[in-house]
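Could you help me review a protein record that somebody else here produced? What it holds is a sequence and that sequence's fold in token form. I have pasted the whole thing underneath without changing anything:
=====
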Amino acid sequence: MLPAGEVGERLFFVNAMTIRRTPTLFLFLFLLLTPGLFAGQKGDDWTVKEVRIDTSRIHRRAALPTQPFEEDKAKQIDKYFTARTVRGQFNGVVLFAQGDKVFTKAYGYADFRTREKLTVSSRFQLASISKTITATAVLMLASEGKIDLEEPVATYLEGFAYPRVTVEMLLSHTSGLPDYTLFTPGAWASTEPMSNEDMLAIMNKRKPRVYFSPGRQYRYCNTNYALLALIVQRVTGEDFASWVHAHIFEPVGMDDTFFCTEGAFASADRMTIGHTSRRGAYQPNFLDGVLGDKGVYSTAEDLLRFDLALRNGFLLDASWQAKAYTNYTDEVHPYGWGWRLDEYQGHRIVYHNGWWHGYKGRFLRLPQEDTTIIVLENQARSSFSVEALMNLSKKLFDLPDRSDQEEETGKMADLDAEEKG
């Protein structure tokens, strides 16, 4: 048996004695191998040529935590979110996990109009949390030598109108490119969803001005991750959503996760509606067809599966994750490759927020402490900063203060305004 999580190719050799002792194995190999693999017969000996089996699609699924937190601690968290729900300040699903313990609960409605209630398995638009998945896809291909992060984007997107912008600048939001949510509305006349290819065509034709010289500073921009999705598509020769399904969602067990452009979106159960602060339903528009920066629908539990797959090295090894969690911008807006970075009382946090069409989300990970916080909402009203969630989590988690009396939380900011898309 292959070690858990191992990918690549392995060589299998079988001798005649083994086959004679195990008829079932012989039958299995006979059906598996095509004619011509047997080199020939010499007396009683049979030799099987080496067989290469691609194990890149082997499922790499970590066991989810199942143990509850202490009852009195869990009640404090439940009381907090229940009170906010009653006051109309929260509507969503929360998940707190540490080690083998987990607390998760749903509060409020999937659809205010029908009064359908949320469950812990309800599906939410992840909005900009989708960027963590896009970045992971790009880095997986980079680790295989299929994408060079230092290469210009034009290497992969022929005719790209901004020759000085590199792939790495897209990942770290240092490209200076304009946001497509601002320059495409006047150029897209159709009511049909705009695709990533459509967005790129408008960009190359109109050549909207950059905000600054590429690489000079940080500016959060949805265009960056829409372009990264296109690069994945060009390099693999596959549809972006299909490639992510085959190499991330399926292997790690994210069975309740899909893109809003897929057929599953129209027929899926346990779906939610994004709502305004006054509980009106948001309607889709042409921008929803662009993927990479947003567009993933998922559950809190599936996000935890994604977290565990990263933590266990199933998708990226430790060296690539270390690069992803390195700050490439500045101390005011520390951003790695697909992840925001922060600290809380000496504990390192990698995270991302999301905000799109009535959905808000928080995905906080403390990789060194085996700790995760997920908050998914479908009403654009509440706002949880990293500091607020970390302060709340102390009711559950065993997180000793490691700041040596230094004030770390002062630099934590709520960056909702940047997270649209």
